[in-house]
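=== RUN LOG ===
request id: a7f3
mode: sequence -> structure
chains: 1
length: 748
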Amino acid sequence: MQFKVTGDMPAAQTSFESNNGLTVDRKSSEVGLQKARRSSRLTIKTTVVLICGLLMFFGATTAGLVFLVSDAVKRANWQSSQIVRALRNQVTADMYHDTLRGVVYKALYASAVGDKIAAGEAVNEIDEYANAFRAAIAAQADLDLPAEVKSVIAALNEPLNTYISQAASTVALASQGDRSDTRPAIPTFNQAFAALEVTMGKASTAIQEANDRAVQAGASIVSASADASAAVFLLAFLSVAMVWALGGRHLGKPLATLGVAIRRLAEGDLDVVFERRQLIAEMETIAIATDTFRANALAVAKLSKEEKVHMARAADAAGQLAAISKSTAIIEFNMAGEVVAANENFCSALGYHLDEIKGRHHRMFVEPNYASSLEYREFWERLRRGEYQAAEYMRLGRGGREVWIQASYNPIFDLSGKPYKVVKYATDITGRKAAVNMLGAGLAKLAEGDLAARIDTRFIGELEEVRTAFNETVSKFSQILGQLRETSRALKIATSEILSGANDLAERTTKQAAAIEETSTAMEQLSTTVVENAKRADLARGKAKDVSFAAEQGGKVMLEANAAMERITTSSAEISNIIGMIDDIAFQTNLLALNASVEAARAGDAGKGFAVVAVEVRRLAQSAAGASKEVKALIEKSSMEVKGGSKLVSDAAGRLAAMLDGVRENTDLINGIAVASQQQSSAIAEVSTAIRQMDEMTQHNAALVEETNAAIEQTEAQANELDRIVEVFLVEKGGRRQRPQEVRRAAA
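=== RESULT ===
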């Protein structure tokens, strides 16, 4: 029997011939190998490209998620800051709204009490507060607010101008001091105030609703950020899982399956079936060659004993030739573990020449500790027992260099079924192993939030694209998170400043509410005092009327007394005239008595009796004359007294008339005071009502400020939550690996 091997394997046709003409044609093997090369199944290169694609997809998805979240956070922060500014401007405008009304009532009160200084101050204040009011409303137009809020704010202009115009005109009238001109302007001013109050309320409601929507949007963004982080972690996990799955399914598991089939074939099981559906192209080549070897072994089994010996040797040689390829390293050991042969692929992978390793023990390729271990001895004992071994192994090349291989140790049996050598089929996976390990370590760090992780060692072949994509993805992710952190810090700073300003505004609003409450109390006391004064003025007016009536009656009596004194003066004059006549008569009687005495003396004795009568008559005449003189003197004195009394009565009547005019003037003044007190009481009642309304609006403003503070605090809490989410990541800044809190301290 003759045994011949012709051609090269697997490039040329190989045949086995026997002396009886039996030939095993290897053309079918060559055709199978060519089909394997043209197969559309996965190759190692395709597997690597898929892994790269998965990692690039993960990087792109992560970058997209982070970009979307960052953009949403920026937009939410901007919208929130605009709405908070709008709230602050609206609160300020609302305060000026009430302040203008306070200035108007201050002017009215100053006009009522005649305080020209306060009225002048009100004229200056109305211009100042009106300009500030307009500025607060105008500031709203520059903000980036929703369209519905802008439309409501734009509707404020017309009632605002009307309100400021009415306030200015009312204050101007009040400063002129004419109360009668200001009273008709008050209802018009109150109507303008109420109209603006309704529009201001609508604006406040619209801004508050926009703020509520912004707060809800911020909460949704924080939730979306958490979901995005979870999605990133899930994608990282899935990427690692899929990388290991692809490596295990298309590299590890196929090698193990192929190794089991070869071991069964080595044990003499010629019925083994090579399942090539799950093998990548390179391994399928080995499977086809081994399948050809099985077919040849079946043919040899039909030969005679002597032919079987020769065919076994030929099959051994042909099997090894078929298994040799550029992607496979092969080495043979005897059962003692010594190197018998090795192909160029194996020598190149370990860095040796064949003459350097031939005849040396397998332990030269393993670590000394492992070579002297029980595990290593058991490894070779299992091989000597014919047990197949396949796994990933770490071996030492020239100079102690670590080389990772995916290998199977296959005991080869002789015709008696005893193993007589071990053939190892191996693939150098050092680069892939190192790349997968470094990539797995990088993904693990990324899953832990370490965004400073980079892979600086270059990968082999197509895996370099994976490394580049990984580093770019992590760098982009780190950059986006850095921007997100900067945005979050800016949001916290802005929120803190706004919260501080809102707290100051709340404190000022509280003080204003306390001041308005004190003013309201003072106005109520003043109103009570004015009401009491009005009542006293009414009583005084009644008393003044009584006094005026009594003074008029006294004037009438004094006039009658003056007339009576004049009549007495006239009677006294008449009596004085009568006394004069009596005095004249007494004087004439005295002359007649004197003449009678002269005549009686002439008559002598005849006239003595007549002389006596004449003397008596003369004496009586002299007595009458003396009495008339005394009466005349008394009457003249009485007349003088009557004249003095009449003058006094006339003076008293004049003074009483002047007092009556004064009483009448006092009555008119008291009537004016009473009317003014009633008007003042009405004005103070209106001012008290206005102050109560101001107090209510101030309380409303205080409540609005509290709500604003709560919204700002909620925004700050959401910013803190966002910081907490990004704090799990470790970033690289200035060549140092830092946590976010360290970055913030460095920035501070």
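=== NOTES ===
The longest helix spans residues 463-603.
The mean pLDDT is 75.
=== END ===
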